[in-house]
Amino acid sequence: MATILEMYQKQKKALNRKLSTSKDNFSEEDFRVLHELIYRTHVLENLQFYCKTAPESKDTKELFEHYKMFDAYVELLLKEHKCGIHYQQDLAENVTTEQNFNNVIKGYRKSFSSFMPKTTESFKDEILRQITLIIPVWIKYRSIYINFNKVKMEVAK
Predict the structure, then answer these.
(1) For 90-104, how does the pLDDT look when each residue is reduced to its tens digit (9 = 90+)?
(2) Is the pTM value of this prediction over 0.90?
(3) Can you give the residue ranges of every domain in the chain?
């Protein structure tokens, strides 16, 4: 089964192929979807990077440096790239979705505020666990701006 990142990359490839074939056939919706796919793949690749580069150590100073960069990146996910058409017209649902994402961020911050590694792999495992919690909530949050369930997606051949 393909990962979300692989599905996004496949869809991005199909839209890039469509764009390179004919700009006249490339609609405004295609533009918005490709723009969002570029952003989402970038974010997912960065989250993979944080997993791959998480220190395997018990040295809390070393772990804290990685955590600071990770935390700053996740904080930006809530603030940046707020463009697109609001497909979810229900303002209350949009507010709830944003609050849910905020709650996930608060939750991992609380988890890391008293983090003491038991093994050299503990930090890496915890980063992976937190990213696993962040991704579905972030995707739901991004659906406020571009909801892939409500737009026609190109399929790579």
Answers:
(1) 778 888 998 999 999
(2) no
(3) 4-150
